[in-house]
Design goal:
By secondary structure, this protein is mainly alpha-helical. The protein is 51% helix and 0% strand.
Length: 152
């Protein structure tokens, strides 16, 4: 099996980011406030979220984490929400997509094969006060009890 190297991953990421920017450019700025459904981000907030979402992986790797147990997702989400809530024009959001994307791709290019081979385990304690021993909804999907349905 051939695996991707750092430059391959960075190139693939740049392609996806370029396509995201193209879509963002095609959406009229007057539609950036559009909300598709209640409790859903506006177009502007979603694009901002996409722009900054890569920050989590940079933080995980900069801290040298090999597990996400104890990782402060809620603190990160609070920072993301604050960043997303900033009022930005379409041009500012496009610039954020470009700069954050290029910064992440450039960082990806520096990753060694050893770093790319590392495994980072997840924690299923992702809800405040939630653990797999306290609530089945917190368990990984394979360990959750089957859902009951009202099918006749």
């Amino acid at each position: 099996m051939t695996s991707y190297g750092a430059k391959d991953l960075a190139s693939a990421f740049r392609t996806v980011r370029k396509n995201t920017i193209q879509v963002a450019e095609d959406i009229p700025e007057s539609r950036y406030g559009f909300v598709a459904a209640p409790d859903v981000r506006t177009v502007a907030r979603m694009l901002t979220h996409v722009a900054i979402a890569t920050r989590i992986w940079e933080e995980v790797h900069k801290r040298g984490l090999t597990t996400l147990v104890g990782f402060d997702f809620f603190g990160m989400m609070d920072r993301f929400n604050a960043e997303e809530a900033k009022t930005r024009s379409k041009l500012e959001i496009l610039d954020l997509l470009r700069t954050e994307g290029e910064q992440f791709a450039a960082w990806m290019e520096t990753l060694t094969p050893e770093i790319l081979a590392e495994t980072i385990t997840e924690s299923f304690r992702i809800s405040r006060g939630c653990s797999t021993t306290e609530s089945p909804r917190c368990a990984p999907p394979a360990l959750r009890p089957p859902r009951r349905t009202n099918r006749h």
